[in-house]
Amino acid sequence: MYRVNEIFYSLQGEGRNTGRAAVFIRFSGCNLKCSFCDTDFDAYREISVEDIVAAIRQWKQAAFIVLTGGEPTLQADKKLIDSLHAEGFCVAMESNGTKQPPPGLDWLTVSPKVRPVVTRCNELKCIFDGRKPVDDFGIEADYYYLQPCDTGDDVQNKALTQACIHYIISHPKWRLSLQTHKMIGFK
């Protein structure tokens, strides 16, 4: 059984797959307590892999699944990924990198907040808060993204975005990732 906060169909709002239609499976629970996290960890239901597959079949046209959280590596396993592949989905995961992901993922995004154990991913997404130096944590990635931290304050967010842009201009290894789903008011 998996503790799932929600399953929904939307657009990927961040990183390399921005704008891509996707089914999100948001797991409840995390091993970190980030102040800017947008997941309600108290609300979840326990469901089986069969129930997850049944729930996502209605969105088969998306062909792209994002396992997110909370921290999906605490629950997602090979059985789930194999079941999603059997339905024809490409399976991506967004993780904090503190635990090795299960085998078989098609895409791995790591967004580290503390020293991760993952050393290789497709996409590294670091949250930029303007206070601490940018750190790639020694992770090798195909793509490196900086994402301005959403503080909930429009003025502060704009200043962080500008500072992030200036950093990227001086450090072109990095690319800008904006939370477009929030910008357009879409979940």
TrEMBL record:
<dbReference type="InterPro" id="IPR024924">
    <property type="entry name" value="7-CO-7-deazaguanine_synth-like"/>
</dbReference>
<feature type="binding site">
    <location>
        <position position="37"/>
    </location>
    <ligand>
        <name>[4Fe-4S] cluster</name>
    </ligand>
</feature>
<feature type="binding site">
    <location>
        <position position="26"/>
    </location>
    <ligand>
        <name>substrate</name>
    </ligand>
</feature>
<feature type="binding site">
    <location>
        <position position="30"/>
    </location>
    <ligand>
        <name>[4Fe-4S] cluster</name>
    </ligand>
</feature>
<comment type="similarity">
    <text>Belongs to the radical SAM superfamily. 7-carboxy-7-deazaguanine synthase family.</text>
</comment>
<dbReference type="InterPro" id="IPR013785">
    <property type="entry name" value="Aldolase_TIM"/>
</dbReference>
<dbReference type="InterPro" id="IPR058240">
    <property type="entry name" value="rSAM_sf"/>
</dbReference>
<feature type="binding site">
    <location>
        <position position="39"/>
    </location>
    <ligand>
        <name>Mg(2+)</name>
    </ligand>
</feature>
<feature type="binding site">
    <location>
        <begin position="11"/>
        <end position="13"/>
    </location>
    <ligand>
        <name>substrate</name>
    </ligand>
</feature>
<keyword id="KW-0460">Magnesium</keyword>
<dbReference type="InterPro" id="IPR007197">
    <property type="entry name" value="rSAM"/>
</dbReference>
<feature type="binding site">
    <location>
        <begin position="36"/>
        <end position="38"/>
    </location>
    <ligand>
        <name>S-adenosyl-L-methionine</name>
    </ligand>
</feature>
<keyword id="KW-0479">Metal-binding</keyword>
<dbReference type="GO" id="GO:0016840">
    <property type="term" value="F:carbon-nitrogen lyase activity"/>
</dbReference>
<dbReference type="Pfam" id="PF04055">
    <property type="entry name" value="Radical_SAM"/>
</dbReference>
<comment type="subunit">
    <text>Homodimer.</text>
</comment>
<dbReference type="GO" id="GO:1904047">
    <property type="term" value="F:S-adenosyl-L-methionine binding"/>
</dbReference>
<feature type="binding site">
    <location>
        <begin position="111"/>
        <end position="113"/>
    </location>
    <ligand>
        <name>S-adenosyl-L-methionine</name>
    </ligand>
</feature>
<dbReference type="GO" id="GO:0051539">
    <property type="term" value="F:4 iron, 4 sulfur cluster binding"/>
</dbReference>
<feature type="binding site">
    <location>
        <begin position="147"/>
        <end position="150"/>
    </location>
    <ligand>
        <name>S-adenosyl-L-methionine</name>
    </ligand>
</feature>
<comment type="function">
    <text>Catalyzes the complex heterocyclic radical-mediated conversion of 6-carboxy-5,6,7,8-tetrahydropterin (CPH4) to 7-carboxy-7-deazaguanine (CDG), a step common to the biosynthetic pathways of all 7-deazapurine-containing compounds.</text>
</comment>
<protein>
    <recommendedName>
        <fullName>7-carboxy-7-deazaguanine synthase</fullName>
        <ecNumber>4.3.99.3</ecNumber>
    </recommendedName>
</protein>
<dbReference type="GO" id="GO:0000287">
    <property type="term" value="F:magnesium ion binding"/>
</dbReference>
<keyword id="KW-0456">Lyase</keyword>
<feature type="binding site">
    <location>
        <position position="68"/>
    </location>
    <ligand>
        <name>substrate</name>
    </ligand>
</feature>
<keyword id="KW-0411">Iron-sulfur</keyword>
<keyword id="KW-0004">4Fe-4S</keyword>
<feature type="binding site">
    <location>
        <position position="70"/>
    </location>
    <ligand>
        <name>S-adenosyl-L-methionine</name>
    </ligand>
</feature>
<dbReference type="GO" id="GO:0008616">
    <property type="term" value="P:tRNA queuosine(34) biosynthetic process"/>
</dbReference>
<feature type="domain" description="Radical SAM core">
    <location>
        <begin position="17"/>
        <end position="187"/>
    </location>
</feature>
<comment type="pathway">
    <text>Purine metabolism; 7-cyano-7-deazaguanine biosynthesis.</text>
</comment>
<keyword id="KW-0671">Queuosine biosynthesis</keyword>
<keyword id="KW-0949">S-adenosyl-L-methionine</keyword>
<feature type="binding site">
    <location>
        <position position="34"/>
    </location>
    <ligand>
        <name>[4Fe-4S] cluster</name>
    </ligand>
</feature>
<keyword id="KW-0408">Iron</keyword>
